[in-house]
Amino acid sequence: MINVCIVEDELExxxxxxxxxxxxxxTSNEQFSVTHLSDGIDLVDDYKGQFDIILLDIQMKHMDGMxxxxxxxxxxxxxxxxxxxSTVSYAVQGYAVDALGYVLKPVPYPQxxxxxxxxxxxVQSKKxxxxxxVSVDDKQLKLDCxxxxxxxxxxxxVVIHAKDNDYVTIGPLKRFEEMLEEHxxxxxxxxxxxNLSHVEAVQKEEVLLGQNIYLPISRARKKxxxxxxxxxxx
Length: 234
Prior knowledge:
Elements: E1 2-7, H1 11-28, E2 32-37, H2 40-45, E3 53-57, H3 65-75, E4 80-85, H4 88-91, E5 101-104, H5 109-126, E6 131-136, E7 139-144, E8 148-154, E9 157-162, E10 166-170, H6 173-180, E11 185-189, E12 192-195, E13 199-203, E14 206-209, E15 213-216, H7 219-233
Parallel strand pairs: 1-2, 1-3, 3-4, 4-5
Antiparallel strand pairs: 6-7, 8-9, 8-12, 9-10, 11-12, 13-14, 14-15
């Protein structure tokens, strides 16, 4: 099931897009769950990373599509954004928020289907990745596990050390261990849950990750960690 959100203040235009999605689904055998919101502010206020594709009108009353896209992109780097616009001049700004593309109103089906198919292929590729949803500073973020080097326990919180940033969220570490142990993560120490795909070496009492990250490996954890690492490599 692919989750699509149409953010469009004109009901007729929204219904047209719904019809296009139904038509595309009938010819491609893809299944879609479609949500319609009438303004950018409705999208931003309750966003939890629940959508795969967002069809976003640029010109809306309370929060325009570009402002909404900027806020969404700060929360979710993976959701696919397609702009629906009346003028090319607005659409060019879409590169700043990594939009897949744009469709000009009135929306013709062939142009829509071509871009929508590209979005579907990207969604299918992304679904092979594993994501975790975490609450950071009252925001819900969706993080690609491939970007996570390790997760560290700090008292009542955990720190997720990723390629682009460090994210502090509520613990305990055991919750993440249970969530990720089947996806290539293993503890090298009671305080560290490691993404095995980023391990470059294990030497005596340390684990070396990419970006010259050194973590301690405890005696109690070493045998289990090495077994998990060997299995991950195989």
